[in-house]
Amino acid sequence: MNDNVKNQAINAKQVSQEISQEGTGTYVDVRTVVEFATNRPKGRALNIPIVFFHPTTKERHPSEAFELVAQHALKKDDNIIVGADSDDRGLEAVKRLQTAGFLNVQLLRKGIDEWKDANLPLTGDNRPGVSYASLLTDARRAKK
Questions:
Q1: CATH at 31
Q2: N or C, which end of the chain is more exposed by having fewer CB within 10 Å?
Q3: CA distances (Å), 69 to each of 16, 63, 74, 119, 121, in order?
Q4: For 13-119, where are the E strands, in sequence order?
Q5: What is the pLDDT of residues 57-112, one digit of tens each?
Q6: What total of structural domains would you count in the chain?
Q7: How far is it, in rounded angstroms, from Cα 2 to Cα 128?
Q8: What angle do CA 64, 75, 82 make, to 5 degrees?
Q9: Largest CA distance in the chain
Q10: Average pLDDT, rounded, for the chain
């Protein structure tokens, strides 16, 4: 993790407060649709995958619509907390969001793994307005 992002990393308990009804943060889960729908942090959250994995070869394919969906679903000055797993997807997403002009982007250090370790509530909620499919559809319609 580079120093700039490391300084912007926050822990799971802080994220829990930020994405609660009283908080001002939005958790942007950049894992795949299946990972998100299986379990994600309970609270204000969106699924915007940064990569997709080929079902048989597991080869990584960058999400071509990542910035499009983020720019439609979020405001440039929103309090955004990015989470993934304990891999590089979260770090990659933070960099791409900052490059796209988002001003307040933080990283949940070890993503969903840290959330689980802190015994914080999980959900499989993947309804419209939260799910990637609905966010992508809305972003593409707005672009026309």
A1: 3.40.250.10
A2: C
A3: 23, 10, 8, 30, 26
A4: 25-29, 40-41, 45-47, 51-53, 60-62, 79-83, 104-108
A5: 989 999 999 999 999 999 999 999 999 987 789 999 999 999 999 999 999 989 99
A6: 1
A7: 34
A8: 60
A9: 43
A10: 92
